[in-house]
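Recall the central idea of this unit: under ordinary conditions, the amino acid sequence of a chain determines the structure it adopts. In this exercise we apply that idea directly, starting from the sequence alone.
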Amino acid sequence: MGESRFTFADAASIVQSYQKDSQIETIIIQKLTAILQGLKGQLFVNLYPQQIASVAKFVYLLLTTFQNERTLGQEYVDLMYVNKDGRRLTKRGQRLGYILSVCFGPYLVTRLIRKLKVIVSKEEGADGVGENDNEEDIGNCSSLKSLIDLGMNLHLMLFYFEGTYSDIWKRIFGLRYMVTHKVGDQEKKFREGNANTYKTLGYVLMLSLIHISEPTRHSLI
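Accordingly, the structure predicted from this sequence is:
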């Protein structure tokens, strides 16, 4: 009774879905950029490439995920969203929260870090802040970005090991992929082989993170 009614997707299928959707999003970005270039000029599209990409992704997911329709990537590998325990489909609020976060979250975080650096830089001399103190504050902003990057890499490592949530926003809002067809014995063996491959990638990433963190650890001693 408590078991999932669905078969969860494996890491390989999720990656294939992501790659296909990335191709579609690239096409939408190019189309939107061409339209804005004609309306606003080349300078505009040069100044706001990240914002244009975020809007293009938002439109794509609004027309698919928000409407509880599959993206082209999901159709390509026969996947669909379910909630985290796999017992029912996702709610509209979950999907909207995910869409807003995945489209605009990275952009807002980047803007926040940049703004903090600007604020810290402007404080130098204004309130009697010394140069060393100012450099320390800027370093703290850089450390915040490094911490965020570390968190994202750790999450990617978990995905390689578990094959569950492909990005941190799906984990936060509880969106998982299910396979919408019956998984046969041959496909099960294929999935097991792929799982071992991705676990190997997880170990490689883990070793890489340990190697990167070593200089930081020693610098704090």
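The chain is about 75% helix and 5% strand.
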